[in-house]
Amino acid sequence: MSASFYICLVFSHFVWIFVLPEYTIIYFDVRGRGQAMRMLMADQGLAWKEECLTFDAWLKGVLKRDAVFGQLPAFKDGDLTLYQSNAILRHLARNHGLYGKNPREATLIDMVNDGAEDLRIKYLHLIYKNYENGKEEYIKSLSTEFGHFERLLAANNKGKDFVVGNEISFVDYNLLDLLLIHLVLAPDCLSGFPLLSAYVKRMTSRPKLEAFLSSDAHKKKPINGNGKQ
Ligand code: GTB
Fold first, then answer.
1. Segment holding 172, helix H or strand E
2. What torsion do the CA atoms of 52, 221, 190, 228 make, to the nearest 10 degrees?
3. Residue 72 CB less than 6 A away from ligand 1
4. What are residue 74's DSSP bridge partners?
5. Pairing of strands 23-27, 48-52
6. Tens digit of pLDDT for each residue in 67-111?
7. Ligand 1 atom closest to 86 (CA)
8. Is residue 30 within 6 Å of ligand 1 at its C-beta?
């Protein structure tokens, strides 16, 4: 199994074998596109290591040359190295039962994740390219953007479950990350969205996720690489 290493403990004539994933995130010192996978792993009780590099070291070093698309985050699962944050989320989802209960749910999860990615690209454009001039207009556009997700929640058991189905999936961590970073950008942005507000409360109250979100590993990590948030 490529994702794993084995710890064997021998107790008299019994052999206990535990299979533990050996995961590593290679990224800049930001939450950025690494945060949904961190929340997923924290919530699922999975251990991971972080290899952090500065933007300067990245530009000067060989890592950029070797990266499949010349970008980070990268993710190591044993001898498998992956790029593209959404592919990494899907990899974790397939290996840890976070991709819906059937093909129909998996497709809906993909659909919502693509919608989340569209919003993330708009957010990143604001942060890295147009913060001072675009912030006000961007915040106004959030009522339309969040309306999509509020309606998706409403259509799924009146918002009482997850965004798709009644089991958590990788898209919940991606959506939660997006909502949390927008709450920093515009603290009132969810005030007109009761289902999304309740969803954030429910998700952030999951014990392992709550512990991660209150850790320094989360709180001290900047959201973005240019100090804007
Ligand atoms: N589609 C890819 C994915 O989903 O993984 C997009 C990855 C991506 O945009 N990566 C950016 C990158 O590698 C970092 S995220 N940029 C470097 C390059 O292209 O050479 C945004 C970001 C920008 C800057 C910092 N920083 O200065 O610390 C951190 C994060």
1. helix 170-185
2. -90
3. yes
4. 26, 83
5. parallel
6. 999 999 999 999 999 999 999 999 999 999 999 999 999 999 999
7. 4
8. yes
**Coil, strand or helix at 45:** coil
CB of 33 within 6 A of ligand 1: the answer is yes
Is 95 close to ligand 1, i.e. is its CB under 6 Å away?
Answer: no
Specify the amino acid at residue 81: T
Strand ranges, E, within the chain: 4-11, 14-21, 23-27, 48-52, 74-77, 80-83
Query: Using a 6 Å cutoff on CB, does residue 54 contact ligand 1?
Result: no
**pLDDT single digits (tens) 129-169:** 999 999 999 999 999 999 999 999 999 999 999 999 999 99
Residue to probe by mutation, ligand 1, list 65, 72, 86, most atoms within 8 Å of CB: 72
The sign of the torsion formed by the CA atoms of 215, 220, 225, 228 equals positive
Domains of the chain: 23-97 (3.40.30.10), 103-211 (1.20.1050.10)
CA 198 to centroid of ligand 1, rounded, Å: 31
Q: Which amino acid is at 166?
A: N
CA nearest ligand 1 atom 19, residue: 71
pTM, rounded to two decimals: 0.92
Ligand 1 atom 16 nearest Cα? 71
